[in-house]
Records
---
Amino acid sequence: MHIPDGFLSPVLTIPAYAAAAPLWVWGAKRHFGPAQVEAMPVIGSLTAVAFVIQTIMIPIPGGTSTHLLGVPLLALLYNPLVAFVAESLVLGIQALFFGAGGVTVLAVNALAMGLLGPAVAWGAFRVLRRLGPRAGAFVAGWVSMLVSALAVAAALGLQQALDPSYFPTPFPVVLGAMLVPALLTGLVEGAYTLVAFSLLARVHVREHP
Amino acid sequence: MSIPEPKRSRTLATGWLIAVFAISAVTDLRALAVLSVLAPLVFPRYAWAVFCKLLVTVIPLAGLLVAASWAWLGLVEGTTPAWQPFAALFLRPALIAFVTFSVLKRVDLLGAVAAWPTASRLLVVTLAQIHALRLLATESYQGLRSRLPMKPRANLAVRSAGGVTAALFQLASRNARDVTDALRSRGL
């Protein structure tokens, strides 16, 4: 689902950095400071797991790829901002060491996969957990994948609308190519979120209010 | 007199950021082709190693993406799309990745972010975790292989990995706790 470097122009990537930067500072200070040091091992582990599962990418037509996210679980356990910072870190490491995604598009990818998807997952879980936390976790994982795919498609579609010579594939084509695989990958994401959430609840990882 | 670390790493990192954003703004195919020829001349040291790394990371994925997009667009629109924008779309990520990998060979990343303790802490914990998970996955696979007379197939390796995931996660958590404690004891 990563947008690769060079698929979005600075017209989009620089404003995305401007939007993401204050959220990074706020999220890092609020959730990753010395006062939250007790949560760091779990967050670090889940970030590493997210890194591992995000490296398995399947290219799809329309300009990007599909893969699991892993970070909506962090939004459920802690906060969407934790997921945002963790996903940004994953994207940064992938871009720097493996060439996946990229540095210029890091903020766009982080906002799509680290903030929008997990924030909707967090909201969905809070609404649905009254029906049962397991069902809530599954739906949260599934919906986060769809929202992230939609956000990535929207960014690519906007680039095509701004300059078709830069990115030639129009929005409806990208949208179709992204949403159909996301519907299926979302089921796996939902299953991962459900299993990991149940496992972590069993080993008493605290769910934050 | 050479610039001391970490100032040198920070200067290189800043120059690299400006360069990659500048490359991401280039749409002209000829300009991208010229830059692709110039890049190895600007970074001759490690150029072959970086190119080999690109061959197994960025080039196959970007190539597949661009080819699939070109074919898909042609299928949907019923015409053959112009190849030039797609060629530029392939060259940009490859060129940016070449510059990125070349600069990273010359930059001490942890030194460059040392001024920001939270960023350093996050980076160290996650890198340590990735390393721990890779080690654990390798050990798990080798353990499985040692119990079988032949090399295990991919589906068997995945099924066996499912059973040890919980144990791996607990080990990874313990490792992350050790790293965090070590960082705390050093005042980070």
---
Amino acid sequence: MTNDLLYLFIGFSAVWVGVFGYLVYVTGRVRSVRDELHDLRGQLDAPQAGPKASSH
Amino acid sequence: MRQARTTELPPPRRLGALREPANAALYVALLLSMGLAIFMAFVVAPAERVQAEVYRILFVHVPSAWLAFAAFGVVAVGSVMFLIRGKSHWDRLAHASAEIGVLFTTLCLVTGSIWGRSVWGVWWQWDPRLTTTLIMWFIYVSYLALRSYIDDPDARRRMSSVLGIVGVVSVPIVWFSVEWWRSLHPTPSITNPGGGMPPEMLTTLLVSVAAFTVFYVVLVRQRMQLELAVTELGSLRERLHERNEDSA
Amino acid sequence: MPAIAATDLVVRLGQRQILRGVSLALAPGERVAVVGPNGAGKTTLLRALAGLIRPRRGQVSLRGGGDPSQPAARAGLGFLGHRPSLYPHLSARENLAFAARLRGASGSAARIESALENVGLAADANRLVRDYSRGMQQRLGLALALLPEPDVVLLDEPDASLDAAGVGDLPLMLDALAPHAAVLFSTHDERVAQALDARVVRLASGRLTEDSRYAPAPHTPTTRGQAAPRPPGFVRAVGAMIAKDARVEWRAREQVPTLLIFTLLAAVVFDMAFIAALGSEVAAVALGVLWVSVQLAATLAGTRLFASEYERGTLDGLLVAPVDPSGIYLAKFALLAIETAFVGVAQLIFLSLLLNVSLFQASTIGAVLLASAAISAILALQSSLVVNARAREMLMPLLAIPPAVPVLLAGVGITLGALEVTPAGQQGAWFGLLAVVAVVFLTLGTVLYPQAART
């Protein structure tokens, strides 16, 4: 009986860990890629303000 | 000229941020439906005659399987639409859906295996349903592998669209495997008229499927946004590179 | 009505925009040179005009309406790519004969001789192309492009690797073999343009910098040349491709001998591995080895199917022919099916001898033949998908084996019946499964390969 419940517990936790883990992973990636995007946009827009652009 | 080029860029969007109303609504729906599904799975649904408690794995196992099928169906639709229309968002949809379909198939196999250990006494049976599901998993893993092995984005989209269409052949095979061959796997008691499932169990199962569907939608949206951001990153890098070449 | 017209052509390759709105028109009989620095987009422009690249925006029309992505419009199109589309294991004459058959040109022997004569290769016509110098290959590539009496000719750097005499011969070749054709070619050398009496347009960073609007040619065309030549019969073209692959295999011996040794090796190694444990159950060893080795051999050969064309640069030659691309899939399917059936039957003999089981029976031979068709229908399509993937040898088994599992199951089912492990009555259903798999994947491949090939 306790064995039964143990398997039930493992089964449910596997699903929750899998699905939420994936969501957290993707969300984290989205965030980091956006930060990088933001940086690059800044670099692209920089020369519009001043002529001293060729730093990269 | 250069200024025109940079202002062509879309404004920074906070895709997927909780602040956006549509996303907020989705996340609220996700939490509510998940909470309800868990409550019903453990409190409302009665214990089963033979298997007692462990049968409740069904409430995550069956939705995983169904959502995997749905996800692979979406892969095929996205692939067909990409080949017809040539718009990359269809390909992004197919890619996102394939990845999540693989996730759900994995969870379906894992939960099924755990249930099998408890009821059959073994982790794995060479049963038609299990075997065909495993093959389907391999097919979509190979779809993801193909994507990661092709560097040219155009070729990647075309080739994986073809594979996304071919792969969906496996879905009906998995679905009908229990009817075509003798199987140990419990047959669907929902499509069976007068099947042995008490109404509380059936309701709980349907609520779980609904909750998983919301989860699927949330995941697909998020995954597509990631892909969009990565693509944008690539083209920004390209632009920066071109511009530095121009000014050099 | 222009012979070649491009309007506002935009081509992106990956993240990069290669052509940024190119418009161009050539009158029938006109010659135009595209000049420009490396990376200007010359090759991409020519490939887009030949229908090898699908433009993101804009249109291409040949002879005032023919879309080069349609096979019929490519009849009468002569194309020389960055690399000439030549099979190293065929002679010059055989290369030209294959190209002629692929284009349905019957009674073309005289034309082939005249092409060889005009490019100065008549004396070397029976030598294998792998023994040709780079310049001779370029001459043969020109002969290939000009072979179908084209009315539209696209040449990517025709003067590349030619010596001074070769460059000097270019106008003569064009005058002799394609006197009325509209010719668009790219070059780094404006003297070539002068020698060919060509109008010059400049391409830089994906844009034409000189006015490229349609202007009447200095030498007005002598013929209308608007009717596209008749495209070849589909079946004949597929037959020509199979015959070409068979001939290449006969000369190069890249596949069949190695596959035969591979299957024998598999038989020996697997037998040694299993026989100790399963000594009394020889049948189990035999049928397992049979089907696993058929599957592995097919995967091995399947990986090379499209890759060999791609690496030699001959895939473009096939795609630019006026044949629906599904014909390429069917020809590759047929080649793989023949090879797989061959090694499968050989394995039946090997195993019968090595394990002393009666595997060599009508039902198992039938199973091997039908399974070869089914597995090849799958693998030919998968092979076309990995053609420009990194490390495709690694990827191919992953792609090829899962969908081939039904073939394995059916093959094992039939063999079990043949060895009288199970009653023979169930074999019909397994043969049915093999036939269903073959038909389903042949249909999918025929429909989907043109999608994968369209760039």
